[in-house]
Amino acid sequence: MNGQIARPLAALTLAAGFSLILTGCGSDYASVEGTITLDGSPLSNVSVVFEPRGTEGTSAFGSTDSNGYYELLTTEEQSGAMPGEYVVRVRSPEPAFFGIENEPESPTAEAPEAEFNEKYVNAVPEKYSAGSELTATVEPGSNTIDFDLTGD
Known about the structure:
This protein has a domain at 27-95 and 124-149: Sandwich (Immunoglobulin-like). 19% of the residues lie in helices and 28% in strands. It has two helices and nine strands, in the order αββββββαβββ. The longest helix is centred in the N-terminal third of the chain and has 21 residues, at 2-22. 14% of the residues are buried.
């Protein structure tokens, strides 16, 4: 009789263990992905940061590929974001992205105005970057959050 109870109990324990492995051991993080466009065209090579609204929480970040697609990370080891309300900031890459070590404060003889503007002007309107009006809600589970930005 003990063998009849022990086998189903062992099978149930194994099934529960596999279930935990498959669900990520109960992670509270939600996956977040999406596409960012500007005036209908994919916005490539920009950073996207989800900053928690309020005083608690952890920011999540990502960057877009050539199709404007992004996936969020909370750390290099942790994908996704915690469920909650966020302010979203979209920014052009930093000057270091262009291989420039010392960003000039303004145009110089080495970086004439036309070249300076081409490299350093933020392609993303201010209302989506430092002064962002964008918000997003991350729900538990999988999230697809797209942003269709306009240049006006």
